[in-house]
Design brief:
It is a single chain. This protein is an alpha/beta fold. The chain has one domain (2-158, 185-211, 244-255): NAD(P)-binding Rossmann-like Domain (Rossmann fold, 3-Layer(aba) Sandwich). It has helices at residues 13-22, 54-58, 76-97, 131-144, 165-168, 187-198, 217-223, 246-250, 260-265; strands at residues 2-6, 26-31, 42-45, 63-66, 102-108, 149-155, 157-159, 181-182, 184-186, 206-208, 215-216. The strands form three sheets. A seven-stranded parallel sheet has the order 3-2-1-4-5-6-10, with helices on both faces. β5 (102-108), α4 (131-144) and β6 (149-155) form a beta-alpha-beta unit. The radius of gyration is 18 Å and the shape is globular.
Length: 269
């Protein structure tokens, strides 16, 4: 099996690629000029915004793991261009040159409405207003309508393996209600989910992947040594960023890092 990965040098990709390579999978990385290629993998120079560079990238691949995305920037044009148009370019290349390949795309739990009446479920309607989740929904729809063998994995808050993401959380939640709960997923279990998808367990499905214990931002900040102000005012959107992961479990996913507390105890942060 030869897998093409986009976004291999990003927050998720940098930690996913070594795990896939260690599992014996042949990893081909789509990298911009000047990027170094991790040991045990192969690189092809290209960019999802340059359609002409994608033909060689997708040729003879068995699967595509599409992680490349733009998130934290005020440049909404770049967000849309990368996340929607870049994905469409990749879809077109796969349809033309590797139509039998399995196409796995990462997405986000931010697609669910802030006032959802329950944890975000894969069959809930989604119409996000902010550029990042809206662009990911557009990319999801393009893939679902492509005629390819696809799967979409929606990740909640990603952490672990020294990525610094959890440590930076207190910088982004200053005005949040401390009781807001948030689903999480460790990089080790992202790799597990991706391998299930590569085996076909998630074919033609949208899947939430999360661990077993959504935690309040108050608790998460506390784990990082930051104290949020207490607040007993009722929480207006209790299910925001909390996802229902039961479908993934019914399809064989079992998180090995079940909670952030376990990750801390085992030195996995």
């Amino acid at each position: 099996m030869t897998i093409l990965l986009t976004g291999a040098t990003g927050l998720v990709g940098e930690r996913l690629v070594p795990r896939l390579a260690q599992a014996g999978l042949s990893c081909r990385l789509l990298l911009r000029a000047g990027r170094s290629c991790p040991e045990g993998t192969n690189a092809v120079e290209g960019d999802i915004l340059d359609p002409s560079s994608l033909e060689d990238a997708v040729r003879d691949v068995t699967a595509i793991v599409h992680l490349a995305a733009v998130f934290r920037t005020r440049d909404t044009e770049l967000i849309w261009k990368t996340n929607r148009e870049g994905t469409s370019n990749l879809i077109a290349a796969v349809k033309a040159h590797a139509p039998d390949a399995r196409f796995i795309m990462s997405s986000t739990s931010h697609v669910y409405s802030a006032d959802n009446p329950h944890p975000g479920s894969e069959d809930d309607p989604v119409a996000p207003e902010h550029a990042y989740p809206a662009s990911k929904v557009a990319a999801e729809n393009a893939l679902r309508e492509s005629g390819l063998n696809w799967s979409v994995i929606r990740f909640p808050f990603v952490y672990g393996d020294g990525d610094g993401h959890l440590e930076s959380l207190p910088d982004h939640i200053g005005q949040w209600h401390p009781a807001q709960r948030m689903s999480t997923i460790h990089h080790r279990d992202i790799a597990m989910a991706i391998q299930l998808a590569l085996q076909g367990a998630f074919d033609r499905r949208v899947i939430n992947v999360a661990d077993e214990a959504a935690m309040s931002v108050y608790e998460l900040a506390g784990l990082m040594g930051s104290q949020m102000a207490s607040n007993s005012v009722p929480l207006p959107n209790p299910w925001y960023l909390h996802v229902d992961g039961s479908l993934a479990r019914s399809l064989g996913f079992r998180p090995s890092v079940r909670t952030v507390y376990q990750a801390r105890e085992e030195g996995l942060l």
